[in-house]
Amino acid sequence: MALVFSLLLLFSVHQSFAARSFKKDDLVEQVCKTTTDPSLCLSTLQSNPRSSSSDVKGLAHIMLEVALREGSDNFAQVKKLVQNATDPIIKQCLDLCVMQYDLLIDNVNKAIHSLESNSFRDANLHAGWAADGAETCENSFIELKRHSPLTERNNLVVHLGEISLEIIHLLEKKGGYYLPTY
Description:
The protein has 182 residues and is an all-alpha fold. The radius of gyration is 21 Å and the shape is elongated. The two termini are 37 Å apart. The N terminus and C terminus are likely disordered.
């Protein structure tokens, strides 16, 4: 009898844990469905083990961290490209990109800090400005009719910034709480 009771208790605990895990995974899917790039959102969040136990604020934090990492990588790449640039127009574009990525990194850090302080409006503004920085970098090449060596990298950072912005916007709209329907 004790064995049957123990098995039932173990099964009950497992079912409860499985239900909670499903709902957290479902939260990632529901949040990502609200973004302009659900596929990138899902692949980014599902690749981070913290996502499965995060609320919406945690998901926004993870996305901002990824945007910061990618933006920092781009900043390092742009600085290398500036050193090797021979075309003065390309160098001009890259110099602008250095400034934009410097601002982008600062804005992502401010967005993270604002998010942590539940200042969702400020987090939203800084995340938006960060996405604008990578887009401004890319547009400088287009406006000066030059091929950008950063298009793929810039576009990734723009999309990560936009997704961060959209997730933070969910928090801002709901006063800090996003309660999906299951």
